[in-house]
Structures are given as C-alpha cells and as structure tokens.
Specification:
The chain has a 5-stranded mixed β-sheet, sandwiched between helices. Strands 1-2-3 form a 3-stranded antiparallel β-sheet, with no helix packed on it. Strand 1 and strand 2 form a beta hairpin. Helix 4 packs across helix 9. Helix content is 36%, strand content 17%. It folds into 2 domains: 115 residues, no CATH class; 141 residues, 2-Layer Sandwich (Nucleotidyltransferase, domain 5), CATH 3.30.420. By secondary structure, it is an alpha/beta fold.
C-alpha cells in the first residue's frame, strides 16, 4: 500500500478512477471534457466549472492529505476486530483524539452501501439491549441502555448476512418498519412470541413465531441460534475493542462497522476491503463533525 500510494498524486489518480470509472463527468453540465488545474481540481471545458475531486464525498473540505486517509482506511480494514480512536491516533500520529474519532465516524458512515439489497430467505429477528449496569437503576430502565433490532440470515447451518439498527421501542410499528427496511418480502421471518411481530403475513412475509414465555433461557438460543450468536458477538466486540465506551447516540455507527466486518468476514484479501470501503466513501455525502449523530429507527 505504501509503495503504490507513495504521494498525493498517486492517491488522486486512484480516487479519480473510482469516482469517474468511465471518465470525468461535470456535476453541473454532465459533459465529459475537462483539464486538470492542480490541487485535485479539474476545469470543465464546456461550462468552465472548477470541480474538486473530493467535493461531495466524506473527504469534502478535509485538512488531512489523501495519503493519510488512505493509510487510515488500510489500517481500519486490516484490523480483524476493528480499531478505536486512541489506537488510530497512536499508530498514524494524528494530532488529536478528536481528529481520529471524527475520521473513524466518517468511515463508519461509508460502511453502509447506498441501495444495498435486503436480506431474504429464512431470517431470524430479535431485539437486544446494549449497555451496562447503572447505580440506581434496575434491569432495562437505565437511561444509557439502547435497544437494538437484529436480523440474521440463515445460510445452511451457519449465518449469512446480518442487519442491525438502534430502535426507539419494541412496538409493532417500529419492528415492522425495521423488517420492511431490512428484509425482502416473501422471506420467512422467525421471531419470538412478542405480540408486536403479529401481522407480518399481511405485508407479504412468512412468519414463524416461537413462544418462549416461561421457557428456560437456553431454549431461546436453541430456537433462534443465529440472532443470539450475533447479539453475543456484538456485545463482546463493543467491550473488547471499544471498552464499552460507546454512547447510545453514536451506537448506530458502531453497528454499521460491525455489520460491514461480519458480512465480509470470509474475505481473504485485505486489499478488496480497502477498495470497497474507499469506493463507498466517495458515494457518501460530506459529514461535518457536528452532524455525527445517527437517527434511530422508530
């Protein structure tokens, strides 16, 4: 990676090929004739617009060189269990923790591909509370706890792709909206006996409800092993990589990263993950630091 992207120019050439694989396209007039004028700028020879290579991407108005961004993306995609902001700051020598944290959140936004296809086939769905114990609060009443909906695809005896999202509550409109957003109609949705899941057949889904009321906790793991396995892995990842220091308002970004990594866990080529994340990064609009909060579903 260091050899191929040895300077800003080589990074710009690579980014150009990702943004305009069929040649330059002016965002103003949609014409194709342009001339480079330096500093990552191109001049449209038809409407004379000056077009920045990084405008409209997550790199928009960045003060960091592209080469540093490329190293950052390579580091993030090459770490099996992900990277936290403190570790990133130390490895790349970034000036502040806030810079590292902001860069990671920008990349996490790019980990969700626009227009990605929904899950299909047999899909297990459940909700889980994320968050530790707080003094003065019992069970699920702690204000720092976040409710997360998880969908896990069946792939033979194993787990296929997954989707997850922070939700406001476990009411029927919220859970149905999550399922409609994440799962294709015609799929068989497997849930517990929670009444909020009733009525899925009316929306074009098969529905298999497994009543777990009064049953031992081990039955839930046996009845829906995939979604419970994902829930366990997610909690372990948040505690192990991020030491549990994740605010509920930022949780969705971490869910996006976990999903990105899990769905590509069988990839043997780190370079492909680097390419995929960089490719998606130019499709995501600018994300100023003040807009890093993620809206939950509900």
């Amino acid at each position: 990676m260091e050899s191929r992207f040895r300077d800003e120019e080589s990074c710009q050439v690579y980014l150009f090929s990702l943004r305009w694989p069929n040649g330059f396209v002016c965002p103003r007039c949609q014409r194709h004739r342009a001339s480079p004028i330096g500093r990552g700028l191109w001049l449209c020879l038809d409407c004379e617009a000056q077009v920045s290579l990084i405008a409209g991407t997550i790199f928009h108005r960045t003060h960091l060189p592209l080469r540093l961004w490329f190293r950052l993306i390579w580091y993030v995609t090459s770490q099996k269990n992900g990277a936290n902001a403190l570790g990133l700051q130390r490895v790349l020598g970034l000036g502040s923790y806030q810079t590292a944290w902001s860069c990671l959140h920008k990349l996490r936004r790019a980990m969700v591909r626009p227009g990605r296809e929904r899950l299909h086939g047999r899909v297990e769905v459940d909700e889980v509370f994320i968050g530790g114990k707080e003094s003065g609060f019992e069970g699920r009443s702690a204000p720092s706890k976040a409710l997360v909906a998880i969908a896990a695809e069946k792939d033979g005896e194993g787990i296929g792709r997954i989707r997850m999202c922070r939700i406001r509550d476990a009411k029927k409109p919220t859970l149905h909206r999550f399922i409609e957003t994440m799962i294709a109609p015609g799929s068989l949705v497997c849930t517990d006996g929670w009444t909020s899941y009733l009525g899925l057949e009316e929306k074009g889904y098969g529905h298999k409800a497994i009543s777990l009321e009064g049953k031992p906790p081990s039955l839930a793991t046996t009845a829906m092993p995939r979604v419970h396995r994902i829930s366990s892995l997610l909690k372990r990842w948040l505690l192990g990589t991020h030491h549990g220091a994740v605010r509920a308002s930022h949780l969705d970004y971490y869910l996006d990263e976990f999903t990105f990594r899990f769905n590509r866990r069988t990839s043997l080529f780190r370079g492909k993950l680097f390419y995929r994340l960089l490719q998606q990064a130019i499709l995501i609009g600018p994300t100023p630091f003040r807009r890093t909060n993620h809206n939950c579903l509900g």
